[in-house]
Design goal:
The protein is α/β, with parallel strands linked by helices. It contains 20 helices and 12 strands. The strands form 3 sheets. The chain has a 6-stranded mixed sheet with strand order 6-9-10-3-11-12, sandwiched between helices. Helix 6 packs antiparallel against helix 7, helix 7 runs antiparallel to helix 9 and helix 10 runs antiparallel to helix 11. Bound molecules: adenosine-5'-triphosphate. One of its GO terms (molecular function) is ABC-type oligopeptide transporter activity.
Length: 588
């Protein structure tokens, strides 16, 4: 299945602005009550600000530009205006608090939704996407949406309400003057509609390059030791410089696109002022208009064009939010292809696991396993040997269902492995990976990862469980026992020690099938002997699959399989396996 987010995004059909807006609003549809209250607050605010200018114009005409000036009337109007501004202030404040909360809650929910989605996606997804890009989607893109919802959305609506109110005033007071004032706005509207797709594209490109830059930083931070050891800093510096340059170029592109509205809006709003000035004075000269109203008219033209100018900035925030939403929605729309299928017929089987005519490839280019069939019996120890890149880890990954076959079936206890719920399957199969994963915490926390059975045990009780499982000698290697601190980046703990913790973690889960993929590669010979004793003392029914390059590790296996060039062949004796390793076909 295709999981590469950048490719999926490039090939996705383009969606219209309005359908994207609809999808964006669905994100906060459960906040209906808060949205209505914020909307009412913004209507009150805009309405009061609009009415204030009408009152000012009327006050001037009624009390100033008249034969009997009435300053008391002006003072009364000022009192009313003060009260109106106070209410407008509180409604604006209330709306800001409401929408700030909506934005933060949406950010919280979205980040959770993306993270939960990542938990269910298969290994293939993580093979095809860079961690840095995913982090950027979770952090940066969700924040772009938050900014739109918490800051821009209500301003957006407020601006539209103010514009509508001002537009209605302009047209209703004097239709001809109003229509002339609004002509430049029609030009701006056409310009905005025409340039929007271009602006969105520029912003999407910029967000993608932010993801690329974040992936580059993450990769070089992960590999900093290799970079320093090999003095290959130039290589990473070059790659970083390229990603940074790409980000710089796309940011400039997005900046130009986003700001291209500002001068155009400025120019056309000045044009509108000019129209009001020239045409308004003309109307006064022919006694069809009053000077006080012209002052109001100027202000209403401003009330119309200022929000329009603001809309330019808000439109940018909207386009950025839509580009961010595109990137997020591609993750949310993904489904795992490792679904649990309906359980078919359970075949009575003495073997614990069976490969039946299995074909597998990571991508279309090359088949890694070709028509493979073999059985693993309960309680036996199997070794997988073969040259580097021969397909051992791939075979083990299919045994643990990290991937599904392209063709053929893997049966666990006579049942299609795909019919097991993940919890049941992972309880039956323990997998110690080539590179064990530990997280920052203590040995205890790492041992109990994914194991509900002992979480409430005291340290003494857990130590007893460890002793009973014959793992005491391994725990003794850690100076502070269960309380020994572990860092996920492995500093302060050796790779061998990490493998020991992963080994204890897997054995304590008491799996029916235990896979060790090069799990002793970094362990000294004496400790390896300890591990081998522990493996021999596992319950008699436990099946073991051991992948190892060190030959002494596989000496005592019941069966040895030779894995290479798409084949998994039973090698028979240890000597025959050695023969195959020395003279067998190597990977092409
Ligand atoms: N995630 C992946 N995507 C694409 N190809 C892969 C992936 N993982 C492994 N391969 C390819 O599959 C082939 C088998 O790899 P695999 O890791 O199974 O070999 P291996 O026998 O375990 O090697 P080693 O002894 O070095 O661990 C190799 O050619 C490898 O390049």
């Amino acid at each position: 299945m295709k999981y590469n987010l950048n490719e999926l995004q490039a090939n996705a059909p383009k969606s219209s602005t309005w359908s994207s807006l609809g999808k964006l609003l669905q994100l906060i549809s459960h906040e209906r009550k808060n949205l209505w209250m914020a909307l009412i607050a913004i209507l009150v605010n805009s309405g009061l600000n609009l009415y204030a200018w009408y009152l000012i114009g009327k006050t001037i005409d009624k009390y100033i530009f008249t034969a009997h000036k009435d300053y008391h009337g002006v003072l009364v109007s000022c009192g009313i205006l003060l009260a109106m501004y106070a209410v407008a202030f509180f409604s604006s404040y209330f709306q800001t608090i409401l929408m700030g909360g909506v934005g933060q809650r949406m950010l919280f929910t979205l980040r959770n939704a993306i993270f939960n989605k990542l938990q269910i996606l298969p290994v293939g997804f993580f093979n095809q996407n860079k961690a840095g890009d995913l982090i950027s989607r979770i952090n940066n893109d969700t924040d772009k949406l938050n900014q739109f919802f918490s800051q821009s959305l209500m301003q957006f609506i407020g601006s539209i309400v103010t514009m509508l109110g001002a537009g209605i005033f302009l047209l209703s007071v004097k239709l001809t003057l109003g229509a002339a004032t609004l002509v430049p706005a029609a030009v701006i509207l056409a310009f905005t509609m025409l340039t929007s797709p271009w602006v969105k594209r520029k912003n999407a490109k910029n967000l993608k390059s932010v993801g690329g830059l974040s992936a580059e930083i993450q990769e070089s931070l992960n590999n900093f030791k290799v970079i320093i050891a090999f003095n290959r800093r130039d290589y990473f510096r070059k790659r970083f410089a390229e990603a940074n340059n790409d980000n710089y170029q796309t940011a400039i592109g997005a900046g130009i696109a986003n700001n291209s509205f500002v001068p155009v809006y400025g120019l056309f709003s000045s044009m509108a002022q000019l129209v009001v000035f020239a045409y308004g004075i003309y109307l006064i000269s022919i006694k069809q208009f009053e000077a006080g109203l012209l002052i109001s008219y100027f202000s209403y033209a401003n009330q119309f064009y200022n929000p329009l100018r603001q809309l330019a900035a808000l439109w940018t925030s909207f386009q950025t939010a839509m580009a961010a939403w595109d990137r997020i929605s591609h993750i949310l729309a993904l489904e795992t292809d490792l679904v649990t299928v309906k359980s078919g017929v359970t075949e009575p089987s003495s073997s614990l696991l069976e490969f039946r005519n299995v074909h597998f490839s990571y991508d279309e280019s090359r088949e890694i396993l070709h028509n493979i069939s073999f059985k693993l019996e309960k309680g036996k120890t199997y070794a997988l040997v073969g040259p580097t890149g021969g397909g051992k880890t791939t075979t083990a990954s299919l045994i643990a269902r990290l991937y599904d076959t392209n063709k053929g079936t893997v049966l666990l206890d006579g049942k299609d492995i795909r019919s097991y719920e993940p919890l049941e399957r992972t309880q039956k199969i323990g997998f110690i990976l080539q590179e064990p994963f530990l997280f920052t915490g203590t040995v205890r926390e790492n041992i109990l990862y994914g194991n509900e059975l002992y979480v409430n045990h005291t340290s003494e009780q857990l130590e007893q469980v460890i002793l009973d499982a014959n793992l005491g000698s391994l725990l003794a290697i850690f100076e502070q026992g269960l309380d020994t601190k572990v860092l996920s980046n492995s500093d302060g703990i050796s790779l061998g020690q990490k493998q020991l913790i992963a080994f204890m973690r897997a054995v304590l889960r008491n799996p029916e099938l235990l896979i060790l993929d090069e799990a002793t590669a970094n362990i000294d010979t004496i400790t390896e002997k300890l591990l081998s004793d522990i493996l021999n003392n596992l319950p008699a029914t436990t099946t073991r699959v051991i992948i190892a390059h060190r030959l002494n590790t596989i000496e005592n296996a019941d069966e040895i399989y030779f894995v290479n060039s798409g084949e998994v062949i039973l090698a028979g004796s240890f000597d025959h396996a050695m023969e195959m390793l020395l003279h067998g076909k190597r990977v092409s």
